[in-house]
Design goal:
Length: 325
């Protein structure tokens, strides 16, 4: 993988969109292109105009490279000390602070230390890399101020399929083991099922398995989301699955490129997840992140009949289009 350096303007930024998602009021990001190379990632569409891509001579939608800013912790430390209106910071919202290129500079660990050395800040860790366990000693020193989440995008029996579309992220079993260790150490946890792809993580029995796992890990909340159809993510995901011989899953992804099919997939996913959470957990702690603009009128009406656990997002809410980096 090619690794390019970039320069970000900010260390800690206010993120109105993630505040609406009930994830965090602030964001820290360590680059603009993540080395996990997830094919469905919507970040390239969100930050495609960032000058770092032009400076690196790369398309935001190309694969095989990462853009990282090793100086991020220094800015974070300065801003953590300077800012007086403090709160919950998500590490990260655009890239992953434990992706391979970030690990080379210990960015996850250094950002945690930079934030937590100041009072009144708390951190929500989100990663797809089990390497976060190496930094549990930092988190243990501030255990009441840190929430740990590993993005679980499917059940263990789907690991090889997911490896085709998340090539440089930790395997699902490794991520699950890391979250179990989080719980075993007495650290705070939350669940993150994002995205729950069709043909991979949207069947009732798969959802039940994921929800039961979250309960086992003592999560404080469960966040979930359908795959974002924006940009080229669905096309790249379909292609990667087909090339690896996972044709059934590739066809399921191809189908939701049609608005009617995408709408039905999202509606069914919501209802199955609500049913599972009601059986195994607490519907009041479900956070299904929903942009309803792509739903058909009939499906939107179905969802509105029972919107327990749904966090409504979209144009009618005062959110930002993207975080400032």
């Amino acid at each position: 993988m090619e690794i390019h350096r970039c320069s970000l303007k900010r260390g800690i930024t206010r993120t109105r969109e993630f505040e609406k998602k009930r994830l965090a009021a602030y964001a820290v990001n360590v680059g603009t292109r993540c080395g996990h190379q997830c094919t469905y990632c919507s970040t390239p569409a969100l930050v495609r105009m960032h000058p770092s891509f032009k400076e690196a001579g790369k398309s935001p939608f190309a694969q095989g490279y990462a853009l990282v800013d090793p100086d991020t912790p220094d800015r974070v430390r300065r801003e953590a000390a300077r800012l007086r209106d403090r709160g919950l910071v998500q590490l990260c919202t655009i890239t992953d602070a434990w992706a391979p290129e970030a690990q080379e500079h210990q960015l996850g660990r250094r950002c945690l230390e930079a934030i937590l050395c100041q009072p009144s800040w708390s951190v929500r860790v989100l990663t797809k890399n089990a390497a976060v366990v190496k930094d549990f000693d930092v988190i243990e020193r501030h255990k009441d101020r840190v929430l740990v989440g590993l993005s679980i995008t499917g059940t263990p029996d789907q690991e090889q399929i997911l490896k085709a579309i998340e090539p440089d992220a930790s395997g699902i079993r490794e991520r699950m083991a890391a979250l179990r260790e989080t719980r075993a150490r007495g650290l705070r946890t939350y669940g993150m099922f994002c995205p729950m792809l069709p043909g991979i993580a949207d069947r009732a029995e798969q959802i039940d398995e994921l929800v039961e796992f979250a309960c086992e890990c003592g999560v404080e909340e469960i966040f979930a989301e359908a795959v974002n159809p924006r940009g080229r993510g669905l096309i790249l995901t379909q292609k990667a699955l087909a090339e690896q011989g996972f044709r059934e899953q590739a066809e399921a992804v191809a189908a939701i490129r049609n608005r009617v099919h995408w709408s039905r997939y999202v509606t069914n996913l919501i209802q199955r997840l609500q049913g599972s959470v009601r059986r195994w957990y607490d519907i009041n702690k479900l956070r299904f992140l929903l942009y309803p603009g792509g739903l058909t009128p009939d499906d939107l009406a179905r969802v509105r009949q029972d919107d327990a656990g749904i966090v409504w997002l979209g144009k009618n809410t005062p959110n930002s289009r993207r975080d400032t980096v």
